[in-house]
Amino acid sequence: MNAAVALFTVAVLLATVSYGDSIFCPPPCTYKKDCSLPKPGGTCLIFPVLVRYRYNPTTRKCEEFKIGFGCCVNCNTFYTKAECEKSCI
Known about the structure:
Distance between the termini: 54 Å
Number of strands: 2
Radius of gyration: 15 Å
Number of domains: 1
CATH class: Few Secondary Structures
């Protein structure tokens, strides 16, 4: 298999991984948001490209952070700052 085909195969496989759906992650948040949880993180399959927000209990503010596809998320992950503030402040 030449390098171009191998690279294409890897790219297709990575592109099919759903955001936050890695087999190494806890189940997605389907219950009440928990603003006390730590910043989501872990090993991502693709470098951070998505902007999300999380509540920081120390600063008592919603903060922006970036995640990549395949990163684990938790119930302290919000799509917008307004959503974070509505849930946590």
